Amino acid sequence: MSLDVRAVLAVSLLSVGAAAQADESSVTLAAGEGVERVQAYCAMCHSLDYIVMNSPFQDRAGWDKTVTKMVKVMGAPLTPEDSEAIAGYLAANYGKPPQ
Amino acid sequence: MDRRKFLLKASGTFAGGLLLPRLGLGAATSEGLPAGTIASSVLDALPGKRPLIKRTFRPPNYETPVELFREAYTPNDAFYVRWHSAVPELALAEWRLRVGGPAVRQPREYSYEEIVRKFRRAEVAAVNQCSGNRRGLFAPHVPGVQWGYGAMGNAVWGGVRLKDLLEDAGVTAGALEVVANGADAPMLTGPDFVKSLPMWKALDPDTLLAFEMNGAPLPSGNGFPARIVAPGWTATYWIKAVTELTVSDKAFDGFWMKTAYRVPKGMFGDSGFASQDTEQNSPITSIKVNSLIVTPAPGATLALGRRAEVMGIAWDGGSGIRRVEVSLDGGARWREAKLGRDLGRYSWRQWRHDFKPQAAGPVTVLARAVARDGAAQSEKLVHNPAGYHHNVVQRADYHVA
After folding, report:
1. How far apart are the C-alpha atoms of B160 and B235, rounded to whole Å?
2. Domain boundaries, chain B
3. What's residue A20's pLDDT?
4. Residue A90 touches partner B, C-beta closer than 8 Å
5. Which pLDDT value is given to residue B174?
6. ipTM, two decimals
7. N or C: which end of chain B has fewer CB within 10 A?
8. Is the dihedral of CA B203, B205, B206, B211 positive or negative?
9. Average pLDDT of the residues in A37-54
10. Which string of DSSP letters, residue by residue, matches chain A?
11. Which of 57-86 (A) contact B at CB < 8 A?
12. Sign of the CA dihedral running B375, B380, B382, B386
């Protein structure tokens, strides 16, 4: 067990009793190029755990499809440049690992 | 990204480190879920609910931990919550139900008091199961809410027959579908969550407009003050916080009917919803026969030479459960489990099986249900793009010592 994992485990054990008070501000995304756009646009309609939950099994084409659905069906107000940056971030940080 | 790197990133998902899913959520019931799902899930209590497994905060998607399925009826405060957009908060005194549309003779509007005064009370015990229950267990994974086993529950639903409401308004000969809309509204310009039922299902005496579950008002998370109860059909049709019923002479073509909640044509049999079938696909409708091992929790230690009892539940889309079989030898021999009381054909049925572990080491219990219509659980996952109808033979691994 690495030190990092042990540290997380220790914090988790302490906080089990307080787990009933969680809210979406507890969700943080990996730092990376484009994360600000993801936080600004995706969180307009849903908590960001949707992203983490749906990982790491979608490749770039899969994340492109998701972003396209958010724009075309759900009405996300993204420019093509936003969509490109957001899908790029998702694939790089929450994408399917190379086989 | 290698696995270790991913785990490190995932471990930073919650600033407060509120969870390690292995604690409280059960390592065994997380098995098969995507790593990101495990990392981002946490036990959390919505108002009026006990802690459930949070999959997403907003809109709220929370599932029931498997150990709470020990009870015949799922307590209201333990019942799973699933929304496509924000939960509407309605006051009963202001709530109205409008019944209208091109295939209705006399459009009506009712208050709660008018409905309970005018129509006979009806009840049905029924499993409410999200279409995507167990989606998270699909291999390969498919996008969507990554549910484990708990996007379902069993309750006694109380209200009035949808049929009685529709007949009061007068359904014309051209009626094809009843379109149900709730008070929830889409974010931005997205499609409103609206679903339709074929007339035969809407007029079925077991299809209700329910105000109660398990003898108490519906919690807001489960559709207060009124929801559709379409027993035997997946929960996508059980519109919550319903305010409007439109009887239509045309097939409803909203996004959530026409595009979403679809299965490839013929993959799961006849949909029973001809007006919504296309050349390529059909709407998901009837729940497939299924079972779940509830106790002991997978991973538990069983005492060598002492009686062990495996308990579970089994259900289908309304034919009822004929038998549940259990195997302790990897599927070579199957024994019939003892079925619990029959609570109605739409309810799940409890089952139990006793055995004495005779050898120390690992033991695997398999369980499969057969419905009264002859349908049996799948040996292998029937993979489909939206991740529906996961009903493979169940497996729980234990350790004997």
Report:
1. 18
2. 3-71, 97-283, 290-400
3. 42
4. no
5. 96
6. 0.92
7. C
8. positive
9. 98
10. --HHHHHHHHHHHHHGGGGGG--GGGB-PPP-TTHHHHHHHHTTTS-THHHHHT-SSB-HHHHHHHHHHHHHTT-----HHHHHHHHHHHHHHHBPPP-
11. 57-58, 62, 66, 73-77
12. positive
**Cβ within 8 Å of residue B398, ≥6 positions away:** B296, B298, B299, B300, B301, B302, B308, B357, B362, B363, B364, B365
**Token digits of residue B120:** 């006979």
In angstroms, the first-to-last Cα distance of chain B is: 39
A7 within domain boundaries: no
DSSP structure class, residue B101: S
In a domain, A39, yes or no: yes
Q: What is the model's pLDDT at position A4?
A: 37
Residue B25: its pLDDT value, please?
Answer: 58
Size of interface A-B (CB pairs under 8 A): 143
**Are residues A53 and B189, on separate chains, in Cβ contact within 8 Å?**
no
Cβ–Cβ gap B9/A26 under 8 Å:
no
For position A61, which CATH number holds? Answer: 1.10.760.10
Whether residues B56 and A23 touch (CB distance < 8 A) is answered with: no
Contact in structure between B201 and B274 (CB atoms under 8 Å):
no
> Is the bond preceding B296 in cis, omega lying within 30 degrees of 0?
yes
Task: Give the range of the structural domain holding residue A58, as residue numbers without chain letter.
Answer: 30-99
Flag residues of chain B having pLDDT under 70.
1-28
Residue A2 lies in a domain: no
- A45 touching chain B per CB within 8 A: yes
The pLDDT, as a whole number, for residue B187 is 86
Cα–Cα distance measured from residue B138 to residue B384, given in angstroms and rounded to the nearest whole number: 9
pLDDT, position B76 = 98
Q: Are A12 and B20 a contacting pair, CB within 8 Å?
A: yes
Token pair of B266 as six digits: 């013929």
- Shortest Cα–Cα distance, B197 to chain A (Å): 23
- Would you identify the CATH topology of the domain B290-400? Immunoglobulin-like (2.60.40)
Which among B42, B45, B255 has the least Cβ separation from residue A73?
A: B255
End-to-end Cα distance, chain A: 25
For domain B97-283, the CATH superfamily is: Oxidoreductase, molybdopterin-binding domain (3.90.420.10)
Contact A45 B16 (CB under 8 A): no
Say whether A54 and B144 touch across the interface (CB within 8 A): yes
Helix, strand, coil % in chain B, rounded to nearest 5: 15, 35, 50
pLDDT at site B26: 58
d(CA B389, CA B387): 7
Contact B276, B257 (CB under 8 A): yes
Q: Touching check for A35 and chain B: CB below 8 Å?
A: no
Let me know if A77 is exposed, middle or buried by CB neighbors in 10 A (0-12, 13-18, 19+). exposed
Q: Nearest-CA neighbor of B235 among B261, B201, B202? A: B261
* pLDDT for the residue A98: 82
Phi, psi of A93 (to 5 degrees): -105, -25
